[in-house]
Batch of 2 targets.
Target 1
Amino acid sequence: MKYVDEFRDGALARKLAAAIRAEVAPDRRYAFMEFCGGHTHAISRYGVTDLLPPNVRMIHGPGCPVCVLPIGRIDMAIRLGLESGATIVSYGDCLRVPASGGLSLLKAKARGADIRMIYSAADALALAQKLPSRQVVFFAIGFETTTPPTALVIRQAQALGLGNFSVLCNHVLTPSAIISILESPDVRELGTVPLDGFIGPAHVSTVIGSRPYAFFAEEYRKPVVIAGFEPLDVMQAVRMLVRQVNQRRAEVENEFTRAVTEDGNLKAQALVAEVFELRRSFEWRGLGHVPYSALKIRRAFADFDAEVRFGLDYVAVADNKACECGAILRGVRKPTDCRIFGTVCTPENPMGSCMVSSEGACAAHYNFGRFRDVPVVAA
Amino acid sequence: MQDDAAGGGAMRGQIKKGYVRPLDLKRGRVDLGHGGGGRAMGQLVDEMFAAAFANEYLAQGDDGAVLPAPGAGERLVLATDAHVVSPLFFPGGDIGCLSVHGTVNDVAMMGARPLYLAAAFVLEEGFPLADLARIVQSMAAASRDAGVPVVTGDTKVVEQGKGDGVFITTTGVGALSPGRDISGRGARPGDVVLVSGTLGDHGTAILSQREALGFETEIVSDTAALHRLVENLLVAVPDVRVLRDPTRGGLATTLNEIATQSGVGITLDESAIPVDAQVEAACEFLGLDPLYVANEGKLVAVVPGERAAAALAALQAHPLGRRAAVIGEVSADPNRFVQIRTAFGGRRMVDWLTGEQLPRIC
């Protein structure tokens, strides 16, 4: 594939690996968090860890949209589907996230709720137009990448005067999540999580630009390198982070210049600002209640806000006690530190959200890396 | 629409004695009467199925077909496969030919010579007879090409909304030569793994037709009967250990089944696995992994290491195996893991598929 294969080239990867090996200080450990699930996926899918020196550790961050979705929010959608008979539409990954009472959207579907998978926000709007006699609710999730399309369909629905379409909004913000991790006692005071820097989001940064990260670099003295989702991007970013650490720099650098500018996509930002405003607080799975970390639909568009239309209330639900998703999302624990990893909690029967999407730290390790946990058998 | 009386009174004079109006293949639709066991059903069976599949065994017209026994020392192989596919017609095929190929291949993967097929149709009320005729014709053509006749069958009609147009279940009987022992339990450390061609064509062709996706490709399904390719391979390499067709769940699922059944590990070379450039691009776009996408005209073979070259040559000599490749090797591994050396230079597992393959969000 032209324009993609170039970023997956094995020969280049070996050269980069050698360059990283040459640059790391042998007596020092490096721990970098890749914020995004897209990076986690690339690292696992291409076996990037095998190309990094043993003293460079990658910590999987909370940037997997379904992983940070709290149980209570999915419960809202399930209740809506089962009790008020609305048609609930969402992205594929969302449908399997475990909720209360052993349910998920997919299981609610088997119990008679009308739940459908869509590929884009535009599909949700089109479905509402096709089914005028049904209430169609788009269960919208994701970081800044998926927010502009949601804003767009809300505006279109208003222009069309579409009375049977609404959005249950769960859009969250990347910078607030990073602050929450940096402010957590584990990182800030106790130092139990050695965190030397971040690989910054790829697609999110195309929207918000590179500027919002300057604060972390300065305030928390952590280097940030924004990187694309291809494996060579990740390796190049690791090399740039190693270099910053070695030179005691803490700056925002942009490896993903082919798509990310300093300002980001101003049009998309304006659209989002028109339709959404900040929520005072939002619960994240793993991070708890994070102030100003999510968006809600502005009053001017309240007709399309499912929470308003159906009078939905949020009820917080605690995670399964044995589940370590919270600590794993903050980088405090590894998937294999969790007692139920791979035993009670598997991709077939996920207890925690990190086991659901292939971008989740636990599912990625289970599906791609589990062979590393057992004694090596000669091939 | 189907009328039950043969015309109005004014026409009576012109109608020949014994005339029965044939099925209206242009505008007719399946109705509940076609499954009722009465005349309408008899007509559907005669004009639609018996006409298309015509052969001496089906012509016996009884509840079952009486068939000659296979050769001396041969054992029987029986396989069955229910076919549900949406859309019913897709680039490169339809549910009709698919239902023949699927079961012929299941029999062939046992190393057996497919002999006969039985077919059961579940039709949904309201389904256009014209579409049914297309499906049955395609099925008959596939059966003729494969040299495997449909010798008996059954038809049921379900109410509208209780089916998805047409479901077809086919059952195949084959004869297995003495001494052949091909099974999922056969893989041994030191064996090599081959595939007969590019992976993911069928599943991607189907997905590209689903209306919600709205993307266009020229990818066509690889649906094909593989028994002649298998025969080619078995002549050159009689000691083939395992044969499987990587249908639903794709190559990854098939290899995990083999590793589990045989109690071995398998390691693949990503750069050796043949994937069509268009399929690769479509999967990239949809967030799918071609290793998990269905095939309907490909086989996986496990052969002893020293037979790799002979097996590859035999596969490549047949038109259905032109892009065959050696893609990995079998090792001793109590964990029965399937792993892959990525083209990028790393290593990872190729695990069982969880649920359905779903596109990722970001």
Target 2
Amino acid sequence: MAIELLMPALSPTMEEGTLAKWMVKEGDEVKSGDIIAEIETDKATMEFEAVDEGIMGKIVVAEGTEGVKVNAVIAILVEDGEDVPEASASTSTAAAAPAAAETKAPAQAAAPAPVASDSAPDWEDGTELKPTTVREALRDAMAEEMRRDEDVFLMGEEVAEYQGAYKISQGLLDEFGAKRIIDTPITEHGFAGIGVGAAFGGLKPIVEFMTFNFAMQAIDHIINSAAKTLYMSGGQMGAPMVFRGPNGAAARVGAQHSQDYAAWYMQIPGLKVVMPYSAADAKGLMKTAIRDPNPVIFLENEILYGKSFDVPVMDDFTIPFGKAKIERAGDDVTIVSFGIGMTYALEAAEKLAEDGINAEVINLRTLRPMDMPTVLASVQKTNRCVTVEEGWPQGSVGSWIASEIMQKAFDYLDAPVITCTGKDVPMPYAANLEKHALVTTDEVVEAVKQVTYR
Amino acid sequence: MPPKKSAKPNVSAEELLGHYREMLLIRRFEEKAGQLYGMGLIGGFCHLYIGQEAVVVGLEAAAEEGDKRVTSYRDHGHMLACGMDPKGIMAELTGREGGFSKGKGGSMHMFSKEKHFYGGHGIVAAQVPLGAGLAFADKYKGNGRVTFAYFGDGAANQGQVYETYNMAELWDLPVVFVIENNQYAMGTSVQRSTKSPSLWERGAAYGIPGEEVDGMDVLKVKEAGERAVAHCRTGKGPYILEVKTYRYRGHSMSDPAKYRTREEVQKMRDERDPIEQVRDMLLTGKHASEDDLKAIDKDIKAIVNEAAEFSKESPEPALDELWTDIYAEEAV
């Protein structure tokens, strides 16, 4: 049976090419793997190998011909003794894919849907409360989840025998042993990859980065291996795990140890991103993060570790992702923040109250999924919004919030949204410069006065 | 050093025929994939495994049910060798609903939980720590399973390989590191990449034993694989196999392969071809007749043609698929 040889596509972008040279002539025997022609693509000259066996019956496109379309018949291969059939069509339709039924993709946000604006409190009135530091809350959450699920383990630098570089894992080695609390060498890229592989293999790793600055060495595994695999595998496998550690500026540690990664990770479909403020947030969200079947980025803050907050005394206290908390109700302006940004936001609100400005302060808690319904409902009431974060201004979390508000509540705005951020500089060491490089409470107060025209 | 093996391998006709069949399936499948690429049915990057068939077929013969494997983007051969359906692989190459990743992964990103195939990874060497992580999970569970982490001579110069070696030996992880040394990292030969003469010996710095293997000889690969697996399965930690192999085709479909001579490739095809070697053994040992082999060839051709037909007929994924599998609602 005659076989039509078609002009091959030899690069991802090739649409046509030059048939530079035939390496065989009519009547020659052709075996699979033989080089039969040289073809110039848009990038290079390529050898064209035969796949089928036979006799070169007819060369349809002469060598030297330019602009030969991909899939045009260039030669006909016949079996020994067979006649060359009349060259039929000059192009083949073989490449046409069955048409997809729809022509337009259904619109849907890639971010996981937030829990519909839910104003229920995190715990019921009358629940016993215990002052707890963020540090203790994180440890308690991990310990509770490790008691609950044998597949949960913690790995990272100094998490076991040293009891944690920031003492977050204090006591865990004693309770759970070296099988589940694992000191790693200083090798972020490697142990992040091993953590993701362990998650593919059915475990639920908690990977601690001594700080998120060092996770830049591992970001390929966080994004390419952990975040994308569920999608790339058509839902067959993913990475149920937590990447956690302190994020953002501490104090006087300079440019390489002071970056806030909230906006970086928040951009990635496939990741969930948590940035707690209080000890209750830290505990309830960490337990949810460990149980979540997706990779979760859990951004802690060194300065908050030692701060004490009320945490409910409950058997199993969790906070769902995608549920912001209104930390302070108000009517005049909405201040949106998260993590350590909340300290500036709340301080500013106190100062503003003295001037008779009643600010509503929203603690986002999770950045992906983000509880935009709560933010939008508040802006529809106050008609003004200021965002607060320590990260850099360009491509900040606040930029995204401002854009969402502009697109979904434009008619409610009485002033432009102002994004209060860290300054657009690497973190300096000098104490006075560092203070200026971060966002300040005064800047938040000033921004609120601008949007309220005071 | 591994013990010297006798010249005449102790292998049954049935086993040899099996190897022949499996290697031929990969060869014919890849030729067909190259053809479909030429027709525009397969897009993007497509890295063929032609020439390297003995590596995966030999090592799969050393594996047990439940053992895991993970590799790079040159992954079609690994998937066929571990028993994934050729139809699903080809349909993933054409980006169709019937593909292993519903058309969302492509040539470089395919997975099968059922066959314990953990990808298909597009970032050079990323699969090495991932493979050690799979082995970590097996050791944690104490289930006696072994993971094969395949990577190339190009990946062997990535830092994460050595980070992984260090931890794999430190924690005695049951992982076989398989360096498929096909001598070219895209267009850069091993000689132009490193002055260290052998890649497996780098494991010595971490205390990991290993050996060099003739990757054009499926029986030698299998024997080495059995030594490696025995080492891992008895709790002695990782093992390195540097399998010397050769790819006949370019790095990807758009590689004109000007960094080596046509004669070099032809010499390898003529003298070392892994499939021809087994074919000769079958015929000279009178384990099979020409007709027997012709029947296998015909059978394989039918399987590959059926896969190609399926990959053309399977519809493109529904547009709703754009938005699925980004987040898991529950454990997968």
